[in-house]
Amino acid sequence: MIIKNFIKAARLRTLPLSISGIILGGFLAMSDGLFNGVIFSLALITTIGFQVISNFANDYGDGVKGTDAIRIGEERMVSSGKISPKQMKKAIMISVILTIIFALFLIYESFGLSNFGYSVLFFILGIVSVVAAIKYTVGNLAYGYSGFGDVFVFLFFGLLSVLGSYFLFTKEIYFLLTLPAISIGLLSTAVLNLNNMRDYQNDKKSKKNTIVVKIGLKAAKRYHYSLLLLSFISAVSYVVLTFTKTVQFIFLLAYIPLVIHALFVYNNKEELRLDAELKKVALSTFLFSVLLGLGQVF
């Protein structure tokens, strides 16, 4: 039973979103003829590790603060008493150790012993990622409680994920690659914003000052539309600037469910109904990364 509870705490439904940037980075490297299956596999495992750390820490941080006492969506393990704070802290530590080990394997496979500077840089980025994952809700200065969660998601799920994974394969970065990275970052931020709109009432009572709590639901909806629209503009700009074949526009299919989603949010009056939309936007982001990547390769 305890294993089942930890699997629930890992929130497997968040994993497709977390690896979207890695998948796109891999496809972009493949389009340049520099793909490496071992690096790709290790990057996926390491990224999943970071996400599990974040989910465990989020469960722990919100649980001990009482934020999850009354919540919409899937049950949290610490607040429900199914996992004790001590057990969760131990799980976080084990996850950190395992993830760092895989990160070291990834760094060695990518850079070997000949690029020591790059190895140090990516090791530091790995440590920063671990700290950021934990500090989102844990501690008195948890940035998820002061409205900076959106910045973290944009930077780590978007820019760092896409550009960092591409660099692991190629050892270089082109300026234009920031455009698809921005798209992934904005779509990932939209998922967080949707989550925060769903939890608006509870977060407000718990003094979890997300951007939604700060600006209110009406403005949060406009912010949500902006994230989706800007992600679209950024992706279209990238394809136009790198255009060689029509198939590159296949990623537009991923925006069909996103447009339907935006219309739903516009007409929705009940925060509870936003919960089902989380999976739709996350999977649409995953689909976007695959289709944009395939369009570059074929």
Question: Please, could you describe this protein's structure?
Answer:
The protein contains 14 helices and no strands. It is mostly helical and 298 residues long. It has one domain. Helix 3 runs parallel beside helix 8 and helix 13 runs antiparallel to helix 14. The model has no long low-confidence stretch (mean pLDDT 93).
Any idea what the radius of gyration is?
19 Å
In DSSP terms (H or I, runs of 4 or more residues), the helix count works out at 14
Largest sheet: none
| Relative helix content | over 70%
- Compute the number of structural domains: 1
Global outline: globular
Q: Please tell me the overall pLDDT.
A: 93
In whole angstroms, the N-to-C terminal distance is 46 Å
